[in-house]
Write a structure and sequence with these properties.
Chain A: One of its GO terms (molecular function) is oxidoreductase activity. Chain A: This is Tricarballylate dehydrogenase. Chain A: Residues 10-434 form the FAD-dependent oxidoreductase 2 FAD-binding domain. Chain A: Pfam families: FAD_binding_2. The complex is a heterodimer. Chain A is of the alpha/beta class. Chain A folds into two domains: 2-239 and 402-463, 3-Layer(bba) Sandwich (FAD/NAD(P)-binding domain); 245-397, Alpha-Beta Complex (Flavocytochrome C3, Chain A, domain 1). Chain A has helices at 18-29, 72-83, 89-108, 134-147, 198-205, 223-230, 290-298, 330-337, 341-354, 443-463, and strands spanning 8-14, 34-37, 54-56, 113-114, 127-130, 151-153, 156-164, 167-175, 178-189, 213-214, 235-236, 242-248, 269-272, 305-310, 325-327, 389-401, 404-405, 412-415, 418-425. In chain A, strand 8 (167-175) and strand 9 form a beta hairpin. In chain A, helix 2 (72-83) crosses helix 3, helix 3 (89-108) crosses helix 10 and helix 8 (330-337) packs across helix 9. The longest helix of chain A has 21 residues, at 443-463. Chain A is elongated, with a radius of gyration of 24 Å. In chain B, helix 3 (46-55) crosses helix 5 (78-93), helix 6 crosses helix 7 (107-127) and helix 9 crosses helix 14. Chain B starts with 10 loop residues before the first helix and ends in a 7-residue tail after the last helix. Classes of the chains: A alpha/beta, B mainly alpha. The interface between A and B is medium-sized, with 34 and 36 residues.
């Protein structure tokens, strides 16, 4: 570790997740001397990439595990739909087009793919799943980087980027309790968003954000992002927004990952802590609604809600990691969940009376709607009347933040006097350039891979 | 975790805790048969967990890919959890019971069995020297060999059969069809569950790097062992069916099967031992590491001593090497129901049971 400051590195990569690793590998393949500074300890390396599971990929015909074709226009339309047009069309289309050549590159650099996971069949054409998930991908890239001679420093926290006259000179890094200046000729910033900095989140969103859960790594604190913004780097993305989904309210504050998802909402009634319903639980299938519910729950008192089902529905969705609260009566369940029993009973009774006859079809929009209720439940509305009753708490789980560094199509970061001479950015720290709102499954890894590779190539070209 | 005061779970309960977390994640679905099997259920009985444990080949792919390993609070280590259940299940099903704990856990006990086996054979050679006979039978009569090895072979098979019967009852096994057997034997013959699925092999001797080394080493041992077994069987057929007695020439069936078999077995076992010294013991059943190591060495020794015996043909080394080889084989056979050797039987049973699972049920 002590030798890190004795070397003048060709390329320094800040952040050892997917984007940083792609950049490091590309640069090292040209023969450059590359250093990765990863703020997490080794078991938690890889940032949010370790929680990911797939890569959204354009393909004009069957490609590896992907079936059929998924062409540029369809991909772009999907992006426009989720972002409601908040994207940079030039960067977005370039990302989409480049994704096709990325998949074989990923395989050549150690990533193994599998067909889509059970319960995600709707993604088998558009998304290539990593065998074992994102941590297996991260492991593969670290091995590839190691074989290419890349140096990795763990628990290395970059505090400050030293920029003189638009040119990166070095980094102030906290390693092993002491601050060190590490010098390099080119810099790739791939250190993610700021969602793990609860103070920043609270500043941006309001004090309610302190009750949010962070689904991913506790190491994405946005230190480098803030340092760059303070030095006048151009930013992109709404600084007040984060992407949040509704997850199991009992999940840990950080790093709960995929298992904290709860798929029961469409088959339930959801009440706030006062026992009142507040939104149509059956508006659409859950994969299209879980992000909306993050915001809905965030708007409720204490940022918490409760999803209530009865024994008819317990097998209609993927099992949860924490077992539900269970009781033979609604009063008993209310007591266990800390809800006002009388109010919960009133809400459920009113809901049950508004249910109508019809055929329940759990995997499609069945049109089984309530009648005369505010708000209505427009699909999968069956009376909650068959004990035992089950209850789950819901909280907003933050996935990522939108504010980031603005980059051009060579991944170069710009500042007060135009483009920085030797600073590039990739991954979540610049994803706001393309993803202004919403989310498209697997697109974060696409942005990270495409821009990570470009940043690594460009940085290597600069020092060649 | 040091402040954790929750009482330790039994191996089955701990594995159940972990499998339930896996069932909410499912990222590992592509590695091996354990995951599709687990993900076809929502609740896991003790028998279900035992079945998953015996289906697990300890390829470790899921451990290195897992985002919930320590220091994460979920503290998943599925390969170790299932290994503990597996070992405990073999102990529970063994008949008689006590031997299993002894030979699974204690490499010293297995070594002791080896010494006893060899000593017995030396004694037999001394006490039962035949008056006349050719080849090996000049040292120990054919009748004496049969008298020693027939029970030493058949009784352990009976014990294994009793254990398998208990297993089948616990995992709710159904009547077995040819299709089940075909599927199970195909998987076993290719060691499909050590292949890593879409990955190139498993994670064993080199951390999270995939490698085919363990699969290849195991192939060498398994096929080496089967060739040796076929060699002995062919000798028996030649002896009784055609009146052709040992020793056999190099171009006879017993030698054509036995020599390559012995070489494969010896090399494979040596390779496995070396790999095992490189692997992380915390991803297996730590308590039986010594017993497993001793077992692989014993298995390799059956091949190596057999080759040595063949090489010594015509020298004064034949008598002692015969005692050593036959003693090794004897120790191997007698401890089979209680050593790591049972894994082959239970794995096959688990693969047959898995073939009975309706496919595509999620």
């Amino acid at each position: 570790m002590t030798q890190l400051d004795k070397t003048r590195w060709d390329v320094i990569v800040v952040g050892g997740g997917n984007a940083g690793l792609c950049a490091a590998i590309e640069a090292a393949e040209t023969g450059a001397r590359v250093l990765i500074l990863e703020s997490a300890p080794k078991p938690y390396r890889g940032g949010n990439s370790r929680h990911t599971r797939n890569f959204r990929c354009m393909h004009r015909g069957p490609l590896s595990v992907l079936t059929g074709s998924y062409e540029e226009d369809e991909y772009f339309d999907d992006l426009i739909r989720v972002t409601k047009g908040k994207t940079d069309e030039h960067l977005a289309r370039m990302t989409i087009r480049t994704s096709e050549e990325c998949l074989p590159w990923m395989e050549a650099h150690g990533v193994a793919f599998q067909k889509s996971l059970s319960g995600t069949l709707s993604l088998s054409r558009t998304n290539a799943f990593f065998l074992g998930g994102g941590k297996a991908l991260v492991n593969a890239y670290y091995n590839t980087a190691q074989d290419l001679g890349v140096t990795v420093a763990y628990e290395a926290e970059v505090k400050h980027v030293v920029v003189e006259e638009g040119r990166f000179q070095g980094l102030d890094v906290l390693i092993g309790g002491s601050e060190t200046r590490i010098e390099g000729r080119a810099l790739v910033l791939a250190s993610g968003g700021f969602q793990a900095d609860l103070d920043w989140l609270a500043d941006a969103w309001g004090p309610a954000a302190r009750n949010f859960l962070i689904r991913g790594t506790p190491y994405n604190r946005g230190v480098v992002l803030r340092d760059m913004l303070d030095q006048g780097a151009d930013s992109v993305g709404d600084p007040t927004q984060c992407h949040a989904v509704a997850i199991d309210g009992r999940a840990a504050k950080f790093d709960g990952g995929i298992v904290t998802r709860l798929d029961c909402v469409p088959f339930s009634v959801v009440v706030n802590k006062d026992g009142e319903r507040f939104y149509d639980e059956g508006e659409d299938v859950w994969p299209k609604r879980y992000a909306i519910w993050g915001r809905l729950v965030a708007a409720q008192p204490d940022q918490v809600a409760y999803s209530i089902i009865d024994s008819k529905s317990i097998n209609n969705f993927m099992p949860s990691v924490f077992p539900p609260e269970t009781a033979d009566t609604l009063d008993g369940l209310a007591q266990k969940l800390g809800l006002p029993g009388t109010k919960l009973r009133e809400t459920v009774t009113a809901f049950n009376e508004a249910c109508q006859n019809g055929t329940f079809m759990p995997t499609e929009l069945d049109g089984l709607s309530t009648n005369g209720l505010t708000p209505e439940k427009t699909n999968w509305a069956r009376p909650i009347d068959t004990p035992p009753y089950y209850g789950y708490s819901l909280r907003p789980g933050v996935t990522f933040t939108y504010l980031g560094l603005k980059v051009d199509d060579t991944a170069r970061v710009s500042g007060p006097t135009g483009r920085f001479a030797n600073i590039w950015a990739a991954g979540e720290i610049m994803a706001g350039s393309i993803l202004g709102e919403g989310y498209l499954a697997g697109f974060g890894m696409t942005i990270g891979t495409v821009f990570g590779r470009i940043a690594g190539q460009e940085a290597a070209k600069h020092v060649a | 975790m040091s402040l954790d005061t929750t009482p330790a779970l039994t191996p089955v309960d701990e594995a159940r805790r972990q499998v339930e977390i896996c069932n909410a994640c499912r990222y590992c679905e592509g590695y091996c048969a354990v995951f599709p099997s687990a993900f076809s259920q929502r609740a896991f009985s003790d028998g279900d967990i035992t079945q998953l444990a015996n289906l697990c080949h300890n390829c470790r792919g899921c451990y290195y890919a897992c985002q919930y390993t320590e220091p994460h609070e979920f503290a998943l280590n599925l390969p170790a959890a299932l290994a503990e259940v597996r070992v405990e299940s073999w102990e529970r099903y063994a008949w008689p019971k006590g031997f299993a704990r002894l030979f699974q856990e204690s490499g010293v006990a297995l070594a002791g069995a080896l010494v006893v086996g060899i000593a017995l054979l030396f004694f037999a050679l001394t006490a039962l020297t035949p008056e006349a006979g050719e080849g090996f039978y000049a040292y120990l009569s054919h009748g004496a060999m049969v008298a020693i090895f027939t029970p030493a072979f058949l009784l352990p098979l009976v014990a294994v059969g009793i254990g398998l019967h208990r297993y089948w009852r616990d995992v709710d096994g159904r009547p077995i069809t040819f299709a089940h057997l075909k599927s199970a034997f195909q998987d076993a013959a290719r060691l499909k569950n050590l292949s890593g699925g879409a990955a190139n092999g498993c994670n064993f001797e080199d951390g999270d790097r995939y490698s085919q080394a363990r699969r290849h080493a195991h192939h060498a041992v398994m096929y080496g062992f089967l060739l040796c077994f076929a060699s002995t069987s062919s000798g028996t057929v030649l002896h009784y069916g055609f009146g052709m007695e040992a020793p056999y020439s190099l171009f006879s069936l017993p030698k054509l099967l036995g020599v390559p078999g012995g070489i494969l077995l010896t090399i494979g076992a040596t390779y496995l031992v070396w790999l095992k010294t490189k692997a992380d013991p915390d991803l297996g059943a730590a308590s039986v590491w010594g017993g497993e190591m001793a077992f692989v060495l014993l298995l390799g020794a059956t091949g190596a001593t057999g080759l040595a015996l063949y090489a010594a043909t015509g020298t004064s080394w034949v008598a002692p090497l015969l005692a050593i080889h036959l003693g090794t084989v004897l120790a191997f056979f007698v401890t089979t129901p209680y050593s790591k050797m049972v894994h082959g039987f239970y794995r096959l049973a688990a693969l047959i049971r898995d073939a009975q699972r309706p496919s595509g049920a999620v």
